[in-house]
């Protein structure tokens, strides 16, 4: 893979770079049949095509997937003419921004015309203008590790901003000055934190400085775009790294102000654990319990579970600090913040519910719950029960091994009881022994509020005593009805 740059390197760095390039060659050979075929079609039409950005970065890291990004000097209407006869499917969702998408075999492909884009200082949308050279296109990209290209089918490597060196050093820098880059698109400040978390890279000091000084610029970016970057950060392999960067630069103040608010002031008279560090640890411990890949609902709940503490903190006379009802306050705050970030109603509901329920288990550790209490716990958690198990276990960050083991044993015991009751009573679908139609028939009443009241009473009996059986349930219903009429 010829290099368009001729900079000299020390022997050790040359070795490292050669290893990186060998990985890239291997990855590129895998996608060559499709990529080269497409490139030849562009060449025959008088245009150039190059693999670019994240695709080149991931190829160099040995992790290129089946999503391929290309850049070209062809305008979007010309790109459509070339790909339509070739691709299995074509979509034009991003054509206003110069991007044509298509699918070929197992590959999802995006072809974007050389461009430069910049924000008006008061606009939420980028203004797109097309460029004429690949160098002009690369300089407008967010980071040097994403500003590399491989011109096809020749496989000429283009790296005008030393992205390969930064990739080998695992550092994030901007092609131009970070101030210019973040002024063009303030969302890049969020991307810096996201890539640090995804790739486990360090962010260059001058980039961190610019993020800190320009954090207010993020205000012009839409909530949806900010949310999407935050999600990618949270489900990454190293979210603590990205979240710390958001807090330290002040970006979290605009995105998730509840997180830096957890860094509560402490004094020598009133001691409590560091809620901010505790939260980041709970998030990582929740990740350890995931079985089928990243779980955004669980991770958001772990991140937000204690955000009600700053508002509920009280200094007690005995020197202790209390946070009474912080789970209830936190659930309301979670709903408000997630709604502001334009999360779906279902996601808001699930995460808020987990935050509200995350302390419920601790009543179990102080005394034996009745079967009724276990049923209510399962009923209230509903389909979130498995996530609630994981969140509750993750919430233990004490260094006191005896206390930690006791909590773990208590939760083991609760899960065993839930399993036994589920086997006996089908807890996942707790319903009264009599449904609404049966209630109306037995009592001889028509649909109305009384049916709902009767149903609620029968549900309470079911939760308190377990399955009654039909005869006992009918007798209990008639007894309740008689009491209502008297």
From TrEMBL:
Residue ranges annotated as transmembrane are none
Provide this UniProt record's keywords sorted from A to Z. Magnesium, Metal-binding, Nucleotide-binding, Nucleotidyltransferase, Transferase, tRNA processing
Q: Where is the HD domain?
A: 275-391
InterPro entries recorded for this chain?
Bact_CCA-adding_enz_type3_sf, HD/PDEase_dom, HD_domain, HDIG_dom, NT_sf, PolA_pol_head_dom, PolyA_RNA-bd, tRNA_adenylyltransferase
List the GO biological process terms: tRNA processing
One MF annotation (Gene Ontology) recorded for this entry: tRNA binding
Query: What's the protein name?
Result: CCA tRNA nucleotidyltransferase
């Amino acid at each position: 893979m010829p290099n368009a740059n001729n900079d000299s390197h020390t022997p050790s760095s040359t070795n490292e770079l050669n290893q990186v390039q060998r990985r890239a060659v291997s990855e590129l050979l895998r996608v060559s049949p499709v990529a080269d075929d497409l490139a030849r079609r562009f060449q025959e039409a008088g245009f150039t095509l190059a693999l670019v950005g994240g695709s080149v970065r991931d190829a160099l890291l040995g992790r290129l997937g089946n999503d391929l990004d290309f850049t070209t000097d062809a305008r979007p209407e010309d790109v459509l003419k070339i790909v339509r006869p070739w691709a299995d499917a074509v979509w034009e969702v991003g054509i206003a921004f110069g991007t044509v998408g298509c699918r070929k075999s197992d590959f999802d492909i995006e072809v974007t015309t050389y461009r430069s884009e910049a924000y008006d200082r008061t606009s939420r949308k980028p203004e797109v203008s097309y460029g004429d050279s690949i160098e002009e296109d690369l300089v407008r990209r967010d980071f040097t590790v994403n500003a590399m290209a491989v011109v096809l089918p020749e496989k000429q490597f283009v790296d005008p901003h030393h992205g390969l060196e930064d990739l080998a050093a695992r550092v994030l820098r901007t092609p131009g000055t970070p101030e210019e880059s973040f002024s063009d698109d303030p969302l890049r400040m969020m991307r810096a934190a996201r890539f640090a978390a995804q790739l486990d890279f360090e962010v260059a000091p001058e980039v961190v400085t610019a993020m800190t000084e320009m954090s207010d610029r993020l205000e012009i970016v839409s909530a949806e775009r900010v949310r999407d970057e935050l999600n990618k950060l949270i489900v990454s392999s190293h979210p603590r790294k990205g979240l710390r960067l958001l807090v330290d630069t002040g970006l979290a103040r605009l995105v998730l102000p509840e997180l830096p608010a957890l860094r509560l002031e402490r004094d020598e008279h009133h001691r409590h654990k560091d809620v901010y560090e505790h939260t980041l640890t709970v998030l990582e411990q929740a990740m350890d319990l995931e079985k089928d890949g990243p779980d955004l609902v669980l991770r958001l709940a772990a991140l937000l579970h204690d955000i009600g503490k700053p508002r509920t903190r009280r200094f007690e006379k005995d020197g202790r600090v209390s946070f009474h009802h912080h789970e209830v306050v936190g659930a309301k705050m979670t709903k408000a913040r997630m709604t502001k970030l334009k999360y779906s109603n279902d996601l808001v509901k699930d995460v808020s519910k987990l935050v509200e329920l995350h302390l419920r288990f601790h009543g179990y550790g102080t005394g034996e719950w009745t079967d009724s209490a276990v049923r209510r716990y399962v009923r209230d958690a509903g389909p979130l029960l498995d996530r609630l198990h994981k969140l509750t276990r993750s919430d233990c960050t004490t260094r006191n091994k005896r206390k930690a083991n006791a909590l773990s044993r208590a939760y083991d015991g609760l899960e065993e009881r839930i399993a036994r009751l589920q086997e006996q009573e089908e807890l996942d679908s707790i319903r009264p022994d009599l449904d609404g139609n049966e209630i109306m028939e037995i009592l001889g009443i028509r649909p109305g509020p009384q049916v709902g009241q009767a149903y609620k009473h029968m549900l309470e009996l079911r939760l308190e005593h377990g399955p009654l059986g039909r005869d006992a349930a009918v007798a209990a219903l008639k007894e309740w009805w008689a009491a209502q009429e008297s």
